[in-house]
């Protein structure tokens, strides 16, 4: 595997991209020239996972998770062909739930609840 970010991804097979210092920035798989399967994105400073999730035919698909540099969960959500769908959650830096709600066809729907850093319900907003 080359460390050269200018290199073209393979038609099919594993792929890694690197930061200038040589550490892994991104890793995943290609099939027929398209991103497929699980992909991971990393922070430069400490190598911690920044985001992980799946691609199908070069599109975000299924559950994804995003993390802070310290490894704490920051956000979770799902995609269906690059479109946000289902339940999404964000978390405060202390790990407490920040907000939760659902998407349908890429738009917020139903009740979205927002919480303080101590976990107290702050507000509820209804979306159509």
Which terms summarize this structure?
128 residues, mainly beta, Histone H3 K4-specific methyltransferase SET7/9 N-terminal domain, 2 domains, ten-stranded antiparallel β-sheet, 10 strands
Q: How large, in whole angstroms, is the Cα Rg?
A: 17 Å
- Spatial order of strands in the largest sheet: 1-2-3-4-5-6-7-8-9-10
Q: Share of helix among residues?
A: under 10%
User: How many domains in all?
Assistant: 2
**Low-pLDDT residue intervals, each spanning 5 or more residues:** none
Within the CATH hierarchy, at the fold level, what is the topology of the largest domain? Histone H3 K4-specific methyltransferase SET7/9 N-terminal domain
Specify the CATH architecture of the largest domain.
Single Sheet
Order of helices and strands: EEEEEEEEEE
Q: Can you tell me the CATH superfamily of the largest domain?
A: Histone H3 K4-specific methyltransferase SET7/9 N-terminal domain
Largest sheet: 10 strands, antiparallel
Q: Would you tell me the structural class of the helices and strands?
A: mainly beta
List how many beta strands DSSP finds.
10
- Rounded to the nearest angstrom, the distance between the terminal CA atoms is 48 Å
Strand content: over 45%
Mean pLDDT: 93
Oligomeric composition of the shown chains: single chain
Annotation field: number of helices: 0
Bulk shape: flat
């Amino acid at each position: 595997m080359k460390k050269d970010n200018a290199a073209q991804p393979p038609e099919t097979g594993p792929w890694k991209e690197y930061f200038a210092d040589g550490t892994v920035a991104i890793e995943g798989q290609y099939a027929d020239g398209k991103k497929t399967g699980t992909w991971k994105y990393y922070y430069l400073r400490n190598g911690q996972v920044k985001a992980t999730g799946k691609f199908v035919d070069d599109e975000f698909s299924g559950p994804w998770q995003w993390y802070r540099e310290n490894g704490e969960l920051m956000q979770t959500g799902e995609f269906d062909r690059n479109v946000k769908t289902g339940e999404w959650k964000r978390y405060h830096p202390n790990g407490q739930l920040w907000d939760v709600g659902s998407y349908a066809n890429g738009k917020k729907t139903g009740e979205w609840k927002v919480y303080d850093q101590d976990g107290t319900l702050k507000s509820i907003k209804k979306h159509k």
